[in-house]
Design brief:
The complex is a heterodimer of chains A (about 160) and B (about 70).
Chain A: H1 2-6, H2 8-15, H3 20-45, H4 49-79, H5 88-117, H6 125-154
Helix pairs in contact in A: 3-4, 3-6, 4-5, 5-6
Chain B: H1 2-17, H2 22-40, H3 48-72
Helix pairs in contact in B: 1-2, 2-3
Classes of the chains: A mainly alpha (about 160), B mainly alpha (about 70).
Chain lengths: ~160, ~70
């Protein structure tokens, strides 16, 4: 945001290359997957392990979807000859969204682990802790995107 | 919780399509952050200090970003 203030014209014109609609889709994907994770955690409290598993896998699918949209997006930007080296806006954009994507990947690994964890008929308190912590990690990745989305795509 | 999700999706779509002034967009973003934290991350039923830490972070971060935005415009 500080860098934007240094050169608002550059940031505004660079932003034109981004597609709001894809980012809206991505945000909705993550919000939905967060809902699934939150619902999964609640489901395990009533012993609905199978429902929890399906919800966690659905959340994982949301993460895959996000990655796919991002790949399309990056591909389009690269095709337009835009890269982190182009200017400050794109440097921030690529670096921050890439870091976010990596965290998302870690989160997907965690969801896969949790999906297998909830198959057990009974979870020990420690395992419940893993579930809640893993769920919170996912929500955090969602939160970061909720902030990144307007910073790059919406603020003019 | 589904109601919160629906509100989040509507807020996303509206601010993503209509947009609006930078300050509005940022405030909407942090309202969303707060909803995710309180409802999805279950901070509503968390110990008060933790909840306050989160609320404090939301207010500070949002204010700093709005301040930077306004000083740069």
């Amino acid at each position: 945001m500080w860098a934007r203030g240094q050169d608002p014209a550059l940031f505004a014109s660079s932003q034109e290359h981004l597609h709001q609609s894809r980012a809206v889709l991505n945000t909705v994907l993550l919000l939905t997957s967060s809902l699934c994770v939150a619902a999964a955690v609640k489901a395990t409290r009533t012993g609905a392990g199978e429902a929890a598993r399906r919800l966690l896998l659905a959340a994982l699918a949301g993460g895959v979807g996000f990655w796919l949209v991002k790949i399309v997006e990056y591909g389009q930007l690269f095709a337009d000859d835009l890269s982190p080296a182009t200017n400050d806006f794109f440097m921030y954009y690529f670096i921050l969204t890439w870091l976010h994507l990596l965290h998302l990947l870690v989160g997907m690994g965690i969801l896969a682990y949790l999906a297998s964890l909830v198959r057990r008929p009974e979870l020990t308190p420690k395992q419940v802790g893993y579930l809640e912590a893993g769920g919170c990690y996912w929500h955090m990745v969602d939160l970061i995107w909720i902030v990144l989305f307007p910073l790059f795509y919406l603020v003019r | 919780m589904v109601a919160v999700w629906a509100l989040l999706v509507v807020a996303t779509i509206v601010s993503g399509t209509v947009g609006g002034h930078g300050v509005v967009v940022l405030v909407v973003a942090f309202v969303k952050v707060r909803l995710v934290g309180l409802y999805f991350m279950e901070l509503r039923s968390a110990p008060v200090p933790l909840r306050l830490l989160f609320e404090g972070w939301v207010v500070v971060t949002c204010s700093v970003l709005i301040g930077l935005y306004l000083s740069g415009v």
